[in-house]
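Students often ask why we bother encoding 3D structure as a string. The short answer is that it lets us treat folding as translation between two languages. Here is a chain of 454 residues written in the first language.
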Amino acid sequence: MKTKLTLLFTVLLVSISGITFAQAPDDCAISLSYFTEPAKVKNYDAALPYYEKLIKECPDYNLAIYQYAVKMFEYFIDEKGDKSKVKDLIKAWELRLQNFPAKTKEGDVLSTIAQIKFDNNIGSKEEQFNAFDEAFKKDPENFTSGKSLYAYFSLAVDLQNSGEKDLQEIFNLYDVVSAKIDEQKNSLAAKLTPLMDKEEAGTALTDKEKRAKDVYENNLGVYATVEGSVSGKLGQLADCPNLIPLYEKDYEQKKNDVDWIKSASNRLDAKDCDSPLSNKLAVRLHELEPSSTSAYLLGKQAEANGKASKALEYFNQAADLENDNAKKARIYYSIAENYRKKGSLSTARSYYNKMLDVKPSAGIAYYKIGSMYADSANNCGTTVFEKRAMYWLAADMMEKAARVDGTVAGNAKAAANSYRQRAPQKSDIFSEGMAGKTIKFNCWVGGSVRVPNL
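And here it is in the second language, the structure alphabet:
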């Protein structure tokens, strides 16, 4: 009898244990439901206790725990003004990364946490900088927030101003951050360009394409603002009166350091610093390591000395040797400018287009082409109407420039508006009977334009 009772007790215990283990996931599901249902309607006071239960008992049960948690704590902080929830918000991001790494972009989350600390003045400037630095170095691909890129660089400059970082560190970081911004702009512009081309060809965009175009244009504007802010933050630190003495002081010690010479040369060139040091650096670099960079810099020096043909020779060498698209774009621009100034407009346009091939966000290329079209109006066409029609093409180029590059958008929009005023107006189209007709250009511009219907 005793043996039977013992056996029965054992069976019951196993059964109860089995029920306990089987219910655990169900308990998590119930708790998740109790959390998410009120969270969906922003009843966060009711949701909060279940969130605390979930992260204690079921932290890796469902990604929705942390998706709703972020919204919840942002609500408490932004809408209710409860700054005590900032640490909870940070913790929610950390737990998401810890429990769902495969569904989480590390660089995005770490930069978001760093931004929260920066916005709420948590920690010293050095600690805040280190948080951004860790995020960027661990996962640069997914560190894409323009706001965070600016904060990252801004903190570095502040630390340099207080003597905690040297100037070369700031220049190095500036190059890194600028390259990242450039990368994002080019990615967006590459997506925007086919949509602009489709519109230009007279094909209506779908609603989905229109929404995408608006997003691309808006984000390009954001990155252009960030780019300007980063350059503004660097400010006088990178002006010629500071750069030239800095590099002159270090030249003898660094004259065999190829990377240092490249960096110094590029920065002096970017600021158009007029100094014998620029030529000395270019020549020295070409001696140590003949390359795209050294050829480009020698080209710039030849150009500055009025030797346009020699400059062009160097620029073409540089383009052939260069693999980096950002640098290749700069070279193509220099070549295009060289031809434009010599009056070889068709060749200049081909190099501006080469620049756009490797850097789709180079609005300056569209801007220059538009300017050349406008300047050629009197030479393209046999009638006054045909000549003025060239301004439609010029305006189109300016509008493209404004769309892909916020740094030239203001001037480009003003130019586009001016050109459209110079183009034939409705009364001209009516009196000439040109509505809907196509005008072909037989000058260097080539191509055609369709006259608007009335």
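Translate back mentally: Residues 121-234 form one domain. Keep this in mind for the problem set.
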